[in-house]
Amino acid sequence: MGGLGFFLNGMGPDLAGGQIQAVRQASQAQAETKSEVNELQRQVERLALLNQAMWEVLRDRLGLSDADLEAMAHAVDMRDGTADDRMTAQAVRCPSCSRVNNSRHAKCLYCGQLFEKPLFG
Ligand SMILES: [Zn+2]
To answer: Which of 28, 61, 90, 109 is the most buried (most CB within 10 A)?
Structure first.
């Protein structure tokens, strides 16, 4: 017999069983991850649809334009000081009452002070 049989015999039943178990667990974890990704994709697509529907209702009923939406999206994007199409939440101190707010908000939650943009640091 060749060296492979000797090698496998040398692994012993416990080690081989442990490897099989590890492969099964990895396969199950992979299936769970795929299921979670599919669910997140479904949720994102649903949210995109609802966003589009809400925008079209607002645009049509308030006489807004797509340029209005883009301008506001840019203003919200810049609240964290970076134009990256994301809202990165940061702690910001209100210049009026000195309480800490989330940078996603356009005004102080405590005193109503409107924030200049960008407001942080
Ligand atoms: Zn305040």
So the answer is: 90
